[in-house]
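tool_log.txt
---
The assistant was asked to compare two proteins side by side. It first ran the structure predictor on the initial sequence, then on the second. Raw inputs and outputs are pasted verbatim so the downstream comparison step can read them without reformatting.
(1)
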Amino acid sequence: MLDIPVFNQSGQQVDTLKVDPAKLGGEVRKELLKQALVMYHANQRQGTVQTKARGEVAGSTRKLFKQKGTGNARTGGIRNPIKVGGGHAKQKRPKDWRQAMPKKARRLATKSAILSKIQAGDLKLLTEVKLDAVKTKTVATMFKSLGIDRSVLLAIPEKHDTLQKSARNIDRTTLTTVEQLNVWDLLRNRTLLMTKADFEKVLA
């Protein structure tokens, strides 16, 4: 069993949550994490680049000068790739870089990433997150009291305007919902911060 401390917003430990590693896959599957990370990275590529081939640029097909007898190197038309303004010899075409993983594999990879956070001590659980008004200083103070001084992924149950507006100006802070937790966000940020209730939903 793994013991995870539970804090309040002031950074004081108020409880301990015992977690069975089997609910998170039992072990950190590094190969699966690598596969998921490559997939999410590849899916961010647009692949919309395109250049013109020699048959697509404007220009005559007339041969510039005769093949032999001029002393010049032989050449073709003005659209030849070696001419200024000619088409590309190896033109680029739009390409779909997207990759796919089975749903069960993605979920298991996400659980492996969460388990790695627990083992490294980079998972912070809160009893609740309560803000009365939009104030960046309140969230920054909470991070400082929890010992968060590097990048943090704040997972909330649903969109929360007050919390989002309060945290969006803090450097290296990423907000997401519990349902949208994925390997890309988890591994890009050092600390995962969420409430105890939300974490129990992930384990269910």
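(2)
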Amino acid sequence: MPDGVVLVAVSKTKPLEDLMEAYEAGQRIFGENKIQEMASKWKEMPKNIEWHMIGHVQRNKVKYMAPFVHLIHAVDSLKLLKEIDKEAAKNERTINCLLQVKIAEEESKFGLSQEDTKILLTSETLQELKNVSIVGIMGMSTFTDNQEQIISEFKILKDCFDTLKKNHPYLRQLSMGMSGDYKLAIAEGSTMVRIGSSIFGARNYN
């Protein structure tokens, strides 16, 4: 990984021994997309690991990860932020969050529009939340083999990030890029990539 780019090892569906092998090799940041699975791994594994929640978050499950989660990647509403704030307060901690901005054409992808992201960052409600810290934005490109389309979507997200940073200089992470497109994402300015299959091999769905 180039300097300045954080590698999140996407360990969802993988057994503990695979995670421990990556841990022994020096990896300390793991990303999961199911809260219960992440919580059970957190209990079993060394406590100097940063756990990132990379999947879509259901509000009623925030409480299970609030004691330990380091960064929640895919925050796509003020309602979800309020829930994270409430559960973080109960645990006397501040939880870092990324706002998910929709850049893909697919309907199945979650995320805020660029306009809604700007509105959320300037909202009075956000100022009142003392136990969440928005540290950046993230986005996922369309699932396609068309590299030009992927690059153009990453460029849109980078432009959005640069624009938002002018008024919100505390935004420091631009999370974009996964196993299939992380090199393109890094070239377009990503500071954080989520890589699973290139580290652990194909997913286990058994």
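---
observation on (2): The chain has a mean pLDDT of 93. The radius of gyration is 16 Å.
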